[in-house]
Every structure is written in C-alpha cells, then in structure tokens.
Amino acid sequence: MRTSLLLAAALLAGSTAAQSGSDQAPSAARTHLSKTYPDAVVKEWKRTTKHVKAEFKVKGVVYDAYYTPDGAWVRTEHDIPKNALPATVTTALKASAYGNWKVDDVEEHATPQYTLLYKVQVKSDTKEAELFFTPDGKLVRQKEKARK
Questions:
Q1: Total structural domains within the chain
Q2: Which of 79, 117, 135, 136 has the most C-beta neighbours closer than 10 Å?
C-alpha cells in the first residue's frame, strides 16, 4: 500500500512539473496554439533567450512553436524525412550552389509570412548552411557559416 501511495505521489508530481511550464506562456500564445492546433497535446512551455517555445504533439508528430515574449507567433516547425521533400524543392536544391552538399536535416516550417517552408540543412567539408525553400522550389533565405 505504501509503495502504491509513493508511486502515485511521484506520478502526480511528475505530471504537475510537466504542466507547470504553461505559466511560462503568454495567454496570446496559448490561445494561438489551441486555435491553430486544437488536437495538440502540449508537453511543455519553455522560455528561451529570445522566445517562448511550446513543444507539443499532434497525431504522434512532435512540433515546436515559437512565440515572442508578448505571445506573437513567430513560427512552427517539425522534422520530416529527407525523402518527404517535394520534387520541386529537391530539383531546386540540386540546381543550386549547394547541390553537391550533404543534406543533414529537413524540417517543415510555417511562419506568418509563409504558410509552408522547407528548411534544409546542408553541409560540405568546411561549411554548413540552412536553406529555406517554398513548396514550388524558390530559395527565399539562406544562412551559411563555417563548420565547427
């Protein structure tokens, strides 16, 4: 009996800790998340140096949503398999200056400006870059830096 009570207390403490991050979230951010993703199961809210981040799942897929400290939505992102990139993006990547670089990671992003972007992280022997493509294959932003 005592073991059961201790286990129940530990589980309750764990679930309270996981939910306590919601007080980190501005009400505008919580409202946006619940309206945009009504089926979302929020794992945690966390403050970073620049943003308030919500980590949540929808139908088993893990998402991160970023908000300003005031609660304005910045972006939502989630990982996708490399082979899930549309052919238009794959073709544009191969035709770009980064065509011979190794694809390291791929994400889908949504922002206030773009309802859908593909972030493709690529690397060469000496550099790495983050490339942002629209679904039609247009490269709209790139950030390149030396590899560490």
A1: 2
A2: 117
